[in-house]
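Input record, target 12 of the design panel.
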């Protein structure tokens, strides 16, 4: 395959485009800007909210970037940014999920279009930086022990549960929620599970984006590191695992780049643009 086969480049954020603790690297932004200048469409597909991704893209000058937030629950376009679509849980289903979380006394998050509800306890510098990324994007933050009660009747797009020490309760909660019809579970980092509606995913959102651009998934380059990236990576012609990715992600992908801390996204894009894909091609 030649470089000009790639018509769309997509990146995950945490553990991929971002450094540890959510740090933005100008090198990654510069690589995306160059790809865009060469006529390649660019997108972010993340478990974070679309406005957060929009703020990060704007900070790095990544204009005309499609923003897929909440694992496909939101799709925005930039630079406006323009809200294209969102997928709200049926109220009966979100109520059932929140009831199970409350029954097992678990902590976690819920996300509406403009509000981040969380019963997690943030005390580390990285946690505070995470919250700051939401506030800077204009997202309202409700962070206290009753936050999920306040989310009960909100139009929710995604929920998340963390293992905060009572692993038995966490696993029981995960099993009960996973058994609900219309739900699927994913994970973007260790000791959590994300709750999505079936049929809503990064893979589905990118597939629709590719179709709207008149290209096939074989012409998509995607970067990822964790299991919520696997369905997308398995469908792309140019699937790139980060050096810090889970073993199963590395096994799935055709290419392997440097770690997120080494700006592996920029390294992979430059390999593409310079017709040097052998730099990241996995041995057969």
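The sequence produced for target 12 reads:
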């Amino acid at each position: 395959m030649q470089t000009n086969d790639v018509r769309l480049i997509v990146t995950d954020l945490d553990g991929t485009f971002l450094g540890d603790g959510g740090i933005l690297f100008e090198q990654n932004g510069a690589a995306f800007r160059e790809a865009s200048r060469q006529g390649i469409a660019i997108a972010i597909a993340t478990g974070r909210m679309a406005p957060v991704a929009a703020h990060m893209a704007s900070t790095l000058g990544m204009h005309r970037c499609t923003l897929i937030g909440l694992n496909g629950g939101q799709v925005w376009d930039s630079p406006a940014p323009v809200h294209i679509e969102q997928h709200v849980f049926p109220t009966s289903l979100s109520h059932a999920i929140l009831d199970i979380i409350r029954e097992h006394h678990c902590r976690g998050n819920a996300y509406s279009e403009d509000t981040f509800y969380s019963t997690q306890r943030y005390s580390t510098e990285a946690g505070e930086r995470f919250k700051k990324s939401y506030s800077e994007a204009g997202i309202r933050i409700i962070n206290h022990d009753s936050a999920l009660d306040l989310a009960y009747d909100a139009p929710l797009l995604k929920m998340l549960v963390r293992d905060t020490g009572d692993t038995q309760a966490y696993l029981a909660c995960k099993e009960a929620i996973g058994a609900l019809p219309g739900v699927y579970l994913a994970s973007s980092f260790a000791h959590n599970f994300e709750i999505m509606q079936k049929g809503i995913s990064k893979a589905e959102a990118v597939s629709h984006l590719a179709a709207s651009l008149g290209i096939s998934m074989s012409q998509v380059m995607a970067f990822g590191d964790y299991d919520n990236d696997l369905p997308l990576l398995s469908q792309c012609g140019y699937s790139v695992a980060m050096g810090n990715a889970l073993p199963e992600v590395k096994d799935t992908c055709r290419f392997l780049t440097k770690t997120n801390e080494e700006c592996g996204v920029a390294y992979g894009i430059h390999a593409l643009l310079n017709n040097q894909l052998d730099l990241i091609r996995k041995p057969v």
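The chain has a mean pLDDT of 93.
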